[in-house]
Each structure stands twice: as C-alpha cells, then as structure tokens.
Amino acid sequence: MCFKLTMKDMGIDLGTANTLVYIKDKGIVLNEPSVVSKDNVNNKIIAVGSEAKAMLGKTPDNITVIRPLQDGVISDFDMTAEMLRVFISKALAGKRATNLRVVIGVPSGVTEVEKRAVEEVVRQIGAKDVYIMEEPMAAAIGSGLQVDQPNGCMIADIGGGTADIAVIALGGIVASTSLRHAGDRFNEAIVQYMRKQYNLLIGEQTAEELKIGIGCALVSVSEDEFKIETTMNARGRDLVSGLPRAIPITSKDIFYAVQESVELIIDSLKATIEKAPPEIAADIVINGMVLSGGGGMLKNLDKLIEERTGLSVVTAENAFEAVAIGTGKSLANISKLKHYAGSKKDKK
Question: Global pTM?
C-alpha cells in the first residue's frame, strides 16, 4: 500500500534507549531499541533495533554492538543516521522517504550544535521539513496536557538517557531541567548493587529486566505488596567461583539499588519548581504534575514524589509513547508547532 502525501507527517522520539516513530492517521508504527551492531572487519551494519539489542554482551571479537545515542545526544553520527534510515524505511513499509515533514523530540538540555546534528541526520534520510521539539513539550502534548493555556502545567519525562522536567504555560517552557541521569543509570545502579551485595556480575539486559519486572521506588506503601510481588531470578556470573549462578532478588533489593538515582530526580523536580514564577508555581499546586517515559513507569515513583513534594502526581496513560505521540500530533498546526519548537525562557 502506498502512503498518501497527507500521511507523510512523521513524529520521531529519538531516544537513548528506544526510538519510536509516529505517522499521522496510523499512530505509533515503530518502537525499536536504539541499538546497532556492525562487523568490525568490513565495517558493515549487521543488525539494527531488537536484533542488535539481543546481541548485547554476547558478541565475538569481530562484532561490536553500539548504542549511538548516549545521555540523550548523538555520540556516533554515522551509526545514528544508518539506524534512522532503517527505522524510517520500516515505518514507511519500504517506500521511499520523500516529502517527509518530521518533528523530532530531543532532551531539553541539548545545545544548538547538538540540535543541528539531529536535524542534519533526519534531512540526510530525505526529510523535507524538520522541526526540533524538546521532549518535555512533546511529552506534555502527547499526555494530553493543555500546554496553550495560561494555567501552568508540569511534566517529568524520564527516559533512558535523560530525565527532562518542565513547567509549561502559554505554549512555551517557562522553567526546565534536563538531568542526564535516568533509566540507564537505574540499570547501572542495579548492576553495581548486585556486584556489591551478592558478588554476582549481571549484564545490562538482566538489570533492565529486573527494573521492569520488580523495580520499585517506594517500599513502605504496604507490606502486603511484597507477599504478592516478591522475587525474580537474577542470572549472572559468581565473582567468587567464576561459575554461572541464579539467585532470587526482591523488590526491596531494586529499591535500595535505585534509591540514590531516584533522589537525584526528585531534587531536580524541586529545583525546577523553584525556578518557576510564583503564579505558575501556584498553578502547579492545583494541577499537580504528570510523569512520562519508561522511567516514569517505575512502580510507586508517583507516590514517592507526592510524599516528598506534596504535589498530586499521575503517570500518563501512554507514558512510554507520550513523546512520539506529541511530536506527531504537533504537526496538526504548523504555526503552533513553530512556537512549541522555538519557545524557551529558562534552561539549565
């Protein structure tokens, strides 16, 4: 089936951990890990996305698995371009990437140089018009927040590489913080905890599985929770014997592992509110805040933030897809899109 011209509007969430593509009238058509594997001998791409991620920690010397985005920015320009070519081709069902009008989400802390690098990558793959939108604005639109109203709203988009926190009013970001400490750091913290606490060396994928499966930001809500959702096996190498080993890990273990990382995000939330004008801060007290992104789905994170800030906190229904949906929906009104993409009063 050939896509019509009106279906060439595309939104891209170019994430450190995952890349999502939204096409008008189709919704999310692609959700793949931002991972590429290549042959070191001839420097050719072997696999992209899920197939490449499955190779992490398992490759021989002649194969390298690369995550071309680190901490929310492009660390390998060529690999990012190749990855996007593959993803957009999949999203368009193999049709040529012509007459594309693309909005791409980037962390709020990226520099103008980094924004131009992202735009150049997207233009190289055939995009005619490219708009760069900061991820918290895209996430707010995708979560259904009324970003054009004078009443302020607040969102924290916690992805793989960055946690982007923003207070938004009248279609612009009034105050924001971009913390390069998010889901990937949760994984690293779990790896370090397992090494220190259990003398067990686990891989990045195992750490991510533990985080998603039994991760918890607050364990004191109800002791009954741990009678229901208690353990998950962690498999790795015993650092003492050197042999493979599997041990049961509880939600409390993951809580202790990610505690420091979660505290950093909460401190950034508080700092962002402090930067907002008093009238808008008053709106936030009434309206509360929204969590989005994969990291925002960590169990009980909303309850912990409520406990620490006194704000009402909800997790977006489409938390993982919010940025991609927001970039796509923003194309419905180009004049507003230009405002969304260009308005910023405060940056950290």
Answer: 0.88
